Amino acid sequence: MGDLPSVGIRLLDDRLSGWGFPRWGSASAAGLDLHACLDAPLTLDPGAPATLIPAGFAVLIRDPDWCGLVLPRSGRGHRDGLILGNGTGVIDADYEGPLMISAWNRAGAPVRIEPSERIAQLVFTRIARPALTMLDGDETSGSGRGAGGFGSSGR
Questions:
Q1: Could you give the CA distance from residue 105 to residue 111 in angstroms, rounded to a whole number?
Q2: pLDDT digits (tens, 9 = 90+) for 103-139
Q3: Per residue in 78-105, pLDDT tens?
Q4: How many helices and strands (H and E) does the chain possess?
Q5: pTM score, two decimals?
Q6: Within a 13 Å sphere around the CA of 146, how many CA atoms are in the beta-carbon half?
Q7: CB 61 within 8 A of CB 91
Q8: Which of 30, 47, 34, 42 is nearest to 123 (CA)?
Q9: Is residue 15 helix, strand or coil?
Q10: For 121, how many CA atoms within 13 A lie in the half-sphere containing its CB?
Q11: One-character DSSP codes across 51-80
Q12: Taking a C-beta distance cutoff of 8 angstroms, is the pair 55, 37 a contact?
């Protein structure tokens, strides 16, 4: 585990400590719980524009071989339709600003978010920056795939 980066956490909302932040939901959980740092409950209406919800801290990854991914919590997405407005948020190693959660309601009923509620998770992962090679306009690998687009493998 010596190759793991040291990630800095700067609290921006003092309530987080009382809510148990920072913590993973279990010993084997991949994601760090992210709380809604709201002053009052928030209702997201179905199909309304995404809303930015403060997570109450800034994360300083600093190591350019790592990034953070803000992901939805599967239970709220499945049960209630609460998903991330941007699908997945990417936190670059050099970003030091406040962490915000873009939330959207894909369900047919309003979704209520309470202050302190765990609404997303932050997963840390290594990244790779492969060497990019510019190809001629019609050059392919010869696999024959690509013309059919989505689902073209038949699976």
A1: 7
A2: 999 999 999 999 999 999 999 999 999 999 998 877 7
A3: 999 999 998 899 999 999 999 999 999 9
A4: 2, 10
A5: 0.86
A6: 7
A7: yes
A8: 30
A9: helix
A10: 19
A11: EEEEEEEEEE---TTEEEEEEE-HHHHHHH
A12: yes
| Residues forming a β-bridge with 89 | 70
C-alpha radius of gyration, the chain, whole number: 19
- Return all residues near 25 (Cβ < 8 A) that are at least 6 apart: 31, 33, 118
Q: What is the DSSP letter of 107?
A: S
Dihedral angle sign, alpha carbons of residues 45, 123, 60, 35: positive
Which tokens belong to 95?
């970003």
Nearest to 122 by CA among 140, 100, 142: 100
Report strand pairing: 98-105 vs 51-60.
antiparallel
Q: How many residues does the chain have?
A: 155
CA distances from 75 to 3, 79, 93, 100, 145 (A): 32, 6, 28, 20, 36
Distance CA 5, CA 65 (A): 9
Secondary structure element (H or E) that encloses residue 4, with its range: none
Joined together, the tokens standing for residue 76 give 């709220």
